[in-house]
Amino acid sequence: MLEREDGRLAVRMQGFLAGTEDFRLGPLDVMIPRGTVTAVIGSNGSGKSTLMRALLGLEPSRGGVLQVLGSGVGPGGDESYKVRTGFVAESPHAYENSMTVREKAEFASLWYPNWDWERYRRLLALFDIRDGVKLSRLSKGHRRKAELVVAMAHDPELLILDEPTSGLDPVIWKVWLDEMQSFMDSGDKTVLIATHVTEEVKRLADYVLILHRGRCIGLYEKDRLFEEWRTVLAEPAGGRPDAGALRSREGCAKVEELENGLYRIEWSATAMPEQDAAMRACGFRPLDSRRLELEEILARITQEEISNTSKEEGSVEPA
Amino acid sequence: MQLPIKVDEQRPEPLYHQIESQLRGLILGGQLAEGTSLPSIRELAVSLKCSAITIRRVYQDLEAEGYIRTRQGSGTFVADVGNADRREHRLSRVAEEMERAVDAAWQLGCTEEEVEELFRKAVLRRASSRKGGENSDA
């Protein structure tokens, strides 16, 4: 049973710790199923890039379990998963500056048994790149596109993208989005994408992994995240509603009476049917609801995390 | 293929519920004929800005209800929906809309007689303007 479950996982982390003296990542306990897109979000310095690099064994492991595509990562691990993985790093490698796009591709083709020149040429044309040009001569956006082409030309099972679209113009961004969609269409590919672009999260992600200061706040199903954090406009269902009782319900962050006799109710991390049941039980009838933007959810979740952390820290202080 | 489905983020119903009821409506209403090929799960997820998990759930529900069927390798298609189901769906949709109008009338303090009178007039007025519309189209 466990083994079969593992076969369906693209990434499995249990108590996984990584990083250097300067920056610690973890402990992370995250299971990412195959066939899904996970957006890794968090403010600068939250550990997104460290996580992406750790998945490829590029960050020193400090303990715990990390498995990617069924292979253990780290000392004594089986590295074969890497040829089934595509990676676009946060910033381009300086040592590649003097290479042409073509030379980079030729180098990659030696490494990946599934390298497909036809696929490579199709992607080049799609992203409008000439491959005789040196990488250092390319603009930021063009270099990004070249890296995406090389990362995808071997049709990887797992694609790890660290802010892949920074520098892309809107037209090429849409081309990339369509390509990602058809990449995912087969149903068994997995994508992990670190991004600050909300639209990418909305369009592509199935799951959202939130990191904050090297810690994992949670792995959320995207649509549920947006449903669980929302502001509801409600009217009294007859008689005076019990705002105090509603405030004490779990997940109810705020109940505010407005001048026009309506109420604004803020919910966090509560399933939608429970929200509705609680509002009705306390004499409110929901009229309208507004989803929070991803940035607002992120700000509130991390705020909560910070206050919880300081509480925990406070409790272990000697009396 | 682009489906005429609109997700309203302000509506207080879960996304999957909105998508499922609209897709069921398109099939029952005959806008999507039997055999029509539906978008892949990922394609629909990207276009509606929701997760593939939600769309998979919608497709599974509608398949269980017999509205769509999935053929391995070739995609998802609209199934044969009986005429009786279609008629029932049409009538219940119309009944829903009418009830909404009746509710509005109650709220504005109309009597039953007034509502009935207004309904008869509305039918007559619409019927004549529809004929007029057809003539001017021709």
Summarize the structure in words.
The complex is a heterodimer of chains A (319) and B (138). By secondary structure, chain A is an alpha/beta fold. Chain A has eleven helices and 14 strands. Chain A folds into two domains: 2-224, P-loop containing nucleotide triphosphate hydrolases (Rossmann fold), CATH 3.40.50.300; 230-291, Alpha-Beta Plaits (2-Layer Sandwich). Helix content of chain A is 36%, strand content 28%. Chain A has a six-stranded mixed sheet, with helices on both faces. Chain A has a four-stranded antiparallel sheet with strand order 2-1-4-5. Chain A has a four-stranded antiparallel sheet with strand order 12-13-11-14. Chain A is elongated, with a radius of gyration of 23 Å. The N and C termini of chain A lie far apart (48 Å). Residues 314-319 of chain A have low confidence and may be disordered. Chain B has 138 residues and is mainly alpha-helical. Helix content of chain B is 62%, strand content 7%. Chain B contains five helices and three strands, in the order αβααββαα. A three-stranded antiparallel sheet of chain B has the order 1-3-2. In chain B, β2 and β3 form a beta hairpin. The longest helix of chain B is centred in the last third of the chain and has 26 residues, at 112-137. Classes of the chains: A alpha/beta (319), B mainly alpha (138).
